[in-house]
Amino acid sequence: MSSRTHVVIFANGRIDDIESIGDLIHPDELIVAADGGASHCHRLGITPDVIIGDFDSVSVDDLYELERAGVQIIRYPERKDYTDLELALLHAKSIGATHARIFGALGLRWDQTMTNLLLPASSELSDLNIQLIDGKQRITVIHAGDLYEISGNPGDTVSLIPLDANTGGISTDGLEYPLKDESLAFGATRGISNVLRGKQATVRLSKGMLLCVVIRKA
Q1: HSE on the CB side for 111, CA within 13 Å?
Q2: Is residue 11 left, alpha or beta, with left meaning phi > 0 and alpha meaning psi from -120 to 50?
Q3: Which overall architecture, per CATH, does domain 141-215 show?
Q4: Which residues have CB under 8 Å from 181's CB, separation 6+?
């Protein structure tokens, strides 16, 4: 299969606004279903390019139909060291992808949800620009040395959550409550519910990692 730089991954979590997703997917993006994420593709009338996992959430008949449709089937054993979503991201990296957008990464199981939120921080996936999308929320990780650009509209909520105790040297521009070469304490809430003043803002940090959550007003 030829490499594509932009990948859309459907995980097997909750998607409440499935109808709105179709407009967010571009024709040149590779579509990967992580196991039961194939059900979201079916609801959208999309045939994925790849389905990957141990297939404990896909029926034999559905898998057969996907195979007949020309979908690449990548099967793993049930006893494995990676979740299906992580396998999908590793596959995206292996074919040369640079960007991955994930739908359905959140759900009722908090262990899975927390792990999925932290996947963009994995050193194995550092070459991938990963964004998790859940309704009006956009979630990603900002790494040390990054100059991260946030696009949106005035009034959008921006939260910066430190992922370790060594996150510091944070500077922002374009947010209601600016940070100037400051630190955010791990486990504290100071970085929650900032506000985008215009259509763009930037975040830079010199050490550590930040989980960045942007919640759009509309």
Answers
A1: 1
A2: beta
A3: 3-Layer(aba) Sandwich (3.40)
A4: 169, 170, 171, 206
pLDDT value at residue 3: 60
Asked if 42 contacts 20 with a C-beta cutoff of 8 angstroms, the reply is no
Closest CA to 91 of 51, 38, 123, 57: 51
Q: Which residues of the chain have pLDDT under 50?
A: 1-2
Q: What is the spatial distance between Cα 12 and Cα 80, in angstroms, rounded to a whole number? A: 17
User: Nearest to residue 125, comparing CAs of 90, 155, 95?
Assistant: 90
How many Å apart are CA 11 and CA 213, to the nearest integer?
Answer: 19
Instruction: Return the half-sphere exposure (C-beta side, CA atoms, 13 A cut-off) of residue 102.
Output: 28
Beta pairing partners, 8 = 31, 101
- What's the pLDDT score for residue 19? 84
For every residue of 57-95, DSSP letters joined together read SS-HHHHHHHHHTTPEEEE--SS-SS-HHHHHHHHHHHT
For CATH 3.40.50.10240, the residue range(s) in the chain are 6-135, 141-215
